[in-house]
Amino acid sequence: MKLHGRTIVKTVAGLAMGAALAFAGPVLAQDDDPIRVAFGDIASVESLNLLIAMERTKERGVPMELTYFNSEDVASQAVLGGEADIGVGAPYAFIQNAKAPIRMFFRMSGLLFFPVVNSEVYSGWKDLDGEEVTVHSRGSGTEALMRLMEDVHDIEFSQISYVPGSEVRAGAMLQGTIDASIVDAANFRLLQEQGGDKFMRLPLEGIDATDEALYANADAFEDRAEDLTIFVEELLRTWKDINDDPSIVGELREQYGLLPDLPDEAASEAVPYYTQAVEGGVYPLDGGEPQNARDDIAFLSAAGQVEGDPEEIDPSDYWNFGPLEAAKSAE
């Protein structure tokens, strides 16, 4: 599977032109306006679980619209400014530093990343002292993890560069334009398949933190409460279905016509990607709980992205568990 930055960018440009508004079924939504979701990443197999849950939500009468942005920073600003209702990420630092009136409401995934280097250039963490590494975006889990590794291994990177999209970073490593990065499971497998022994995974220990969550602005929690509950119900159902049988991702992608412009090689990686992620326990079935907020603060504070004692924080400063509790009570 060969995925390069230019191909992916073209794919995203085509996908981002349209808004997912079509729906046929009983009308249960609070109003006809779509819930607007801001996604600060490229279109890829990683987002299929979210897209499936959105399609199922639309089938229940809640219109939804997804827009791709070029970074999580831009997406979070869109949510903060009211241009979008929901964002994708784990914006603890943004909430803390900007006192932003946004809160997370569904834990999508835990961290399962693979720091990887060109073994012809580096042989371990110590070799990265004074060197450049590439991560997903500013404030992302990938950046937090690499910042934490600086402290753990007593090193300091000369620069951290931001390149959204694990596929794009893997493609850049295959092309030889970057030599140290962090990728997801599917793209680590890609590097192994196409690069052989050239690419080496660096070890990680004791990391338990949120990779991505869904968050919303205060107006959405108030104005779209019933719709958010329906959305969370479908998120919980989709996550359970995928954990029970990851191959359902391929079936539902075809059923809903999701990401039709993905290259065949990328599309063929969908089921293996979710199979490996499920085996790694990436997708939690409970949607999140207060302890996750404490674990995330512990991780992010160790990485220097936030401040605070994880045992003393108030999870409600970062999370709104209302939609999740309502969805679970409806089961």
Can you give a write-up of this model?
The N terminus is likely disordered. α5 links the parallel β6 and β7. The protein has a five-stranded mixed sheet, with helices on both faces. α2 crosses α9, α2 packs across α10 and α9 crosses α14. The chain has two domains: 227 residues, 3-Layer(aba) Sandwich (D-Maltodextrin-Binding Protein, domain 2); 84 residues, Periplasmic binding protein-like II (D-Maltodextrin-Binding Protein, domain 2). The chain starts with a helix and ends with a helix. It has 14 helices and ten strands. It is 43% helix and 15% strand. By secondary structure, the chain is of the alpha/beta class. It is globular and about 55 Å long.
Which structural class best describes the helix and strand composition? Answer: alpha/beta
In which range does the helix fraction lie? 40-55%
List the strand order in the largest sheet: 2-1-3-10-4
- Say which CATH homologous superfamily of the largest domain is assigned: Periplasmic binding protein-like II
Strand content: 15-25%
Q: What is the general shape?
A: globular
* Poorly predicted runs: 1-30
Average pLDDT for all residues:
88
CATH class category name of the largest domain? Alpha Beta
> In CATH terms, what is the fold-level topology of the largest domain?
D-Maltodextrin-Binding Protein, domain 2
Query: How is the main sheet built?
Result: 5 strands, mixed
Q: Indicate the CATH architecture of the largest domain.
A: 3-Layer(aba) Sandwich
The overall strand count is 10
How many alpha or pi helices? 14
Order of helices and strands: HEHEHEHEEEHEHEHEEHHHHHHH
Terminal Cα span = 40 Å
Overall tally of structural domains: 2
Family: Belongs to the bacterial solute-binding protein SsuA/TauA family.
Keywords: Signal
InterPro entries: SsuA/THI5 (IPR015168)
Subcellular location: Periplasm
